[in-house]
Amino acid sequence: MNATKHIVLSSHPPRNGNGNPSIDWGAPDAKQRGPVIGSMNAPHQRNVIGVHSGAYGVYRALAVASGALESDHRPDLSNTAPTVDIGPHPQWRDPNKIVSLDPWGHMVSTVYAEEIAQGLDVRPTIAVTKARIKFPEMAEAIASDRVAPDGDIMRANGEVTVTKAAIEPVWHLPGMAKRLGVEESALRRTLFEHTGNMFPELVTRSDLTVLLPPIGGISLYIIGDVAALSDPRREVACRVHDECNGSDVFGSDICTCRPYLTHGVEECVKTAQAGGAGLIVYNRKEGRALGEVVKFLVYNARKRNPEGDSAAAYFQRTECVAGVQDMRFQDLMPDVFHWLGVTKIDRWISMSDMKHDAMVSQGIAIGERVPIPPELIPEDAQVEIDAKKAAGYYSDASTPHTADLTAIKGRALDDY
Ligand SMILES: [Zn+2]
């Protein structure tokens, strides 16, 4: 193990200067932009705040602490290149279009091959691979003639062939501040203070403009030809889905998340079969980015409401516990579309006005908006749907009246 004996604080630049490569965010090509280096192996090379792998950086620290991982391990990147080309797209050269991921993140082993050969520890922040996915809901969709297998995009057993990508967050702090409409200094200070002073460089190192935040990233599932996503002549269907582990994985019936997700996959398959492409953007923002503990506390507060679980109190109960209704910051969500070169979505499978408005404000046109079909809404989730419609979420059905909102529709805790 190659551990140093003394602790080196990173809160101030080294006396002799860094000698690390600079980052010119939004530069025309990868060379001019410069590599993002967040490895702890070679502290003098680092040009960002934070470490790679988001929250998993903490597990890496545990692995080093327990002796399972050499602290100076470097990844062997041979054969790890993407299975399909993505970009470069013109959007990558606009520092305001992409502020929360590194557009070159999947290409580092080629675009920075020279730098890596010279000893720089540049690591991918994006990986692109292939898979087949299978949901019982796809078999149901085939059985009810909503989709038909074609043997390529969808097989007879309901398996869907996908290109999938994993994306770690890479935040350009000046661009983030601009997007959120706050001063960069205020953003830096708040990030510093509200993470328990986790990264002092946020407030002491204005020379470091990029943060690798310890949060979850994005998973993309692309159905059909990836090239169709950036081709304005071909149709694109899309569902932007924020993580809901209880419903997505475990089938909890209190919300519409899994039915909406599988409905999205179904619509993506249809669009891909018609010569376009479908895209599922899965953001790791559990429970509107409030986290699952807060989410479950809110469930109890709703279910124990003396007036019963009704749409009228749905958002109030969230706000009482969390202080806000939502912490997802959809303002940053369109970045991944700019990365993919998407300029318009023909079929947008979502009810959320926040998501819709964030896309439009980033210049990405939205065609038809596709709400969840009523027959796919679980019984206990009617409260959520009514609350969302009344709050102005998009719906092609009639907006519920106030009287409907106070009607008890959710199960009480005694009814489980
Ligand atoms: Zn949910």
Name its key features:
alpha/beta, seven-stranded mixed β-sheet, 17 helices, 10 strands, single chain, binds zinc ion, 416 residues, three-stranded mixed β-sheet
Describe the structure.
With 416 residues, the protein is α/β, with parallel strands linked by helices. Helices cover 31% and strands 13% of the residues. The chain has helices at 30-33, 56-65, 108-111, 113-117, 136-143, 173-180, 184-193, 201-204, 245-248, 257-273, 286-289, 292-303, 314-322, 335-340, 353-361, 382-390, 402-406; strands at residues 49-50, 126-133, 160-167, 171-172, 210-212, 218-224, 236-242, 277-283, 344-348, 365-369. Strands 2-3-6-8-7-9-10 form a seven-stranded mixed β-sheet, sandwiched between helices. Strand 9, helix 15 (353-361) and strand 10 form a beta-alpha-beta unit. Helix 12 packs across helix 13. The longest helix is centred in the middle third of the chain and has 17 residues, at 257-273. It is globular. The model has no long low-confidence stretch (mean pLDDT 92). Zinc ion is lined by residues 244, 247, 255, 257. Zinc ion binds at residues 244, 247, 255, 257.
Structural class: alpha/beta
Number of beta-strand segments? 10
Bound compounds: zinc ion
Oligomer, anyone? single chain
- Work out the strand percent: 5-15%
**Runs with pLDDT <50, length 5+?**
none
Determine the fraction of residues in helical runs and give it as a percent range.
25-40%
Mean pLDDT: 92
Alpha-carbon distance between the two ends:
53 Å
What is the N-to-C succession of helices and strands?
HEHHHEHEEHHHEEEHHEHHHHEHEHH
Largest sheet: 7 strands, mixed
The helix tally amounts to 17
Give me the Rg, rounded. Answer: 23 Å
| Order of strands across the main sheet | 2-3-6-8-7-9-10
Q: What spatial form do the alpha-carbon principal axes imply?
A: globular
